[in-house]
Design brief:
mainly alpha
Length: about 100
Amino acid sequence: MKTLPRSLSGKTYSGQSLKSLVEQANGVVENKIRAWKIDNGSTKWHEALLEVTLAINMQVHSAINQTPYNVVFRQPFNSAAWAPRQERQEEALSGTSYIDWM
């Protein structure tokens, strides 16, 4: 059986165990999108992707005791960067911060 290169944690995964990890991650995304659709009364799941991605990337993972965002970018999260373009433009004009109304 082929093994994949070592991950960041130094573990090597077989094809089957990697498939299980992907299916688990897909389940997390699917559940968060489902919850978003219920909370927002919408069937347009694609509108949830930005918010769901942000929620997943900002959750502290118990094994690494930090967020995936911090692991990847090695810096604190900048919420203004995730604001839709129109909101960033309005913020620049009004002088209010995206964080102030979050």
